[in-house]
Amino acid sequence: MTPSTEFLLHIRRIARFYETLIRPVCEEYGCSQIETDILAFLFNNPEKDTAKDIVELRMLQKGNVSLAVDSLIRNQFLIRNQDAKDRRLFHLSLTDKGIKAAKSIRKVRSRFQSALLEGFSLEEILLYHKMNQKIFDNAAKYTERT
Q: Fewer C-beta neighbours within 10 Å, C or N terminus of the chain?
């Protein structure tokens, strides 16, 4: 197997592991995975509270975010408030139900991270983060060129 194939396979395996862990939360709250991602994003980034913020920072498709936000509002996880200065802009706020779901998602993400880093020393974790940042920086650099 080539290194690039192996790298992509590892990424997909990690994604599947996360999907397995988050599935019970999705079922409990009747949400899709993208909806849980949006709830977690808003919970962790309260100052980034528009659909545009979610699209840009999470790099998700605009149409997918729009559908997910509409569903989250319909199911009372979110409230949409019009901006006082720019009536074209809408801010998203978590309801109590949304906060409860986001806390469950946070627990799953913590378990996910702990499981992935099991057996690593602190030095190895710091090195992993440093190397990962270089990979992300390279990806961003080359993405911007295309």
A: C
Domain total of the chain: 1
Rounded to two decimals, what is the model's pTM?
0.87
Domain of residue 46, residue span: 3-118
Q: Is 16 within the bounds of a domain?
A: yes
Q: Is 81 contained in some domain?
A: yes
pLDDT digits (tens, 9 = 90+) for 17-44: 999 999 999 999 999 999 999 999 999 9
- Tell me the DSSP string of 46-94: TT--SHHHHHHHHT--HHHHHHHHHHHHHTTSEEEEE-SS-TT-EEEEE
What b/e string do you get for 32-51 counting C-beta neighbours within 10 Å, with b at 16 or more? eebbbbbbbbbbeeeeebbb
